[in-house]
Write a structure and sequence with these properties.
Length: 96
């Protein structure tokens, strides 16, 4: 019977994965990663349920404290790399 020490289990899994990524141990996110942002109201159906606030600069309605999730908890991590494109706009007060 093969006994795997807890101290070497992670290293053994990494070696198995390096030798054969297709059949090696799967990797899963241990935490979620996202970007906190403010979005223009009514861009997404979920906004209809959210509290909207009027922007003092342009007068448009926004939903604040939304999160654009890049990776969610327990999602399987793959080796596919894709570029991340975000449309961002920063509005600064002129009287600062």
């Amino acid at each position: 019977m093969l006994t795997v020490s807890r101290a070497t289990a992670v290293a053994r899994g990494a070696v198995l994965r390096a030798f054969n990524k297709e059949r090696g141990p799967r990797r899963y996110a241990r935490t979620s990663y996202g970007i906190l942002r403010t979005e223009q109201y009514d861009l997404f159906p979920e906004h209809r349920e959210a509290k909207k606030t009027r922007d003092r600069h342009d007068g448009k309605f926004n939903v604040v404290n939304t999160i654009d999730w890049l990776l969610k908890l327990v999602t399987q991590i793959t080796l596919s790399f894709r570029p991340l494109t975000l449309l961002l706009c920063n509005v600064l007060d002129a009287d600062v």
